[in-house]
Amino acid sequence: MKRLWLVVPLALVVIASACSSSSSTATASGSVTGDVTLTMWMGYTPPPPVEQSQEYLSIQDMVTRFQAAHPNIHINIQYVNSDNALQKATVALQGGKQPDISYQYGTNMPQLATAPKLVDLTQRVQDPSFDWNDFFEGERAVATVDGRVLGIPALVDNLAIVYNKDLFAKAGVPTPTPDWTWDDVRAAAKATTDPANKVFGLVFPADASETMVWQFEAMLWEAGGDILNADNTQAAFNSPAGVRAATMLQQMQQDGSLYLDFHPDSGQYTNLFNSGKIGMLITGPWDLSAFPNVDYGVQQMPSFDPGGSHITIAGPDCSAGVNVTEMTGAGVVAGGGVAAGGGVVCAASGSPAARAIPMTSSHSARAE
Questions:
Q1: Which of 234, 254, 277, 344 is the most buried (most CB within 10 A)?
Q2: What residues of the chain score a pLDDT lower than 70?
Q3: What is the DSSP letter of 328?
Q4: From-to residues of CATH 3.40.190.10 in the chain
Q5: CB proximity list for 363: less than 8 A, separation 6 or greater
Q6: pLDDT single digits (tens) 239-256
Q7: pTM value?
Q8: Which tens digits make up the pLDDT trace of 81-113?
Q9: CATH top-level class of 160-300
Q10: What CATH number matches the domain at 10-157+314-356, 3.40.50.300, 3.40.50.2000, 3.40.190.10, 3.40.50.1110?
């Protein structure tokens, strides 16, 4: 697999501050006796509605299980929009009002790393019982600044293809397999298209937005191309690989099977998919809870050639903490943060994008 690069990851950061509880005592082994209350900032909205709050409920469930295992530690979850988390954390650190744990974009890590109150977790994660290497290399890299581990990978949002099983069955299209190609996608899109009922085989953003770039960049990589040259000094997407990726979209549009979405952030594609008007869409795990009306399947991105690359693009999340004394693979012991259990696939700091495994893979898998 090609090198993993970074795109908008999140990190759970631990910040050194006084615990909310004044009745705790640290032992020689680093464990804590007495009650400890910790504040955790995270950017997922709580319900209602429940169907749009799966991330929040997942974190809440992990916190509940952690507290059951460590009854003297209470985690106080507070919502802070992730887009504003860096600014809020910076101001809070300056004023001495910082939380104990903060959910942050991985791209925020270099700036947060300059704060002396950010906890260095390097020794903790090097403990064999933590199983730090269970995270992908890129996940570990995005949480590391200048050799210091300052966050714990929490989650990865990577692209795959979500398809409507009913539309596939109705058109006689076989269930996609992990080795499928873009020619297979084109054929499936054409077969599931029904002009009379305004059903399209595939939706693709066409507004030159970040969403469009994400989806096209994955196709570009799968075709063997890249956005920049090897030393990042020149644009390289105007290449045979770039033409091949763009031509595939052009051919599907000419087939009449491609729905061009000029407002992908409006949620229109979600409504169309729920109403059975779209056969396939390229999206990530953040969207799955928005499809209550569809019997859908998920398959990794296709390759352009049989046996070729199924590489995808990812926006990983990490958890950065701000007040930790001892951590284990299951979470924080002794006055610290919560190590969220989802996998992250990120990579080298400062790079334009993250390449990752499909979202159908598990956290403990290895990228080959």
A1: 344
A2: 1-33, 315-368
A3: E
A4: 10-157+314-356, 160-300
A5: 134, 135, 341, 342, 343
A6: 999 999 999 999 999 999
A7: 0.69
A8: 888 888 999 999 889 899 999 988 877 888 888
A9: alpha beta
A10: 3.40.190.10
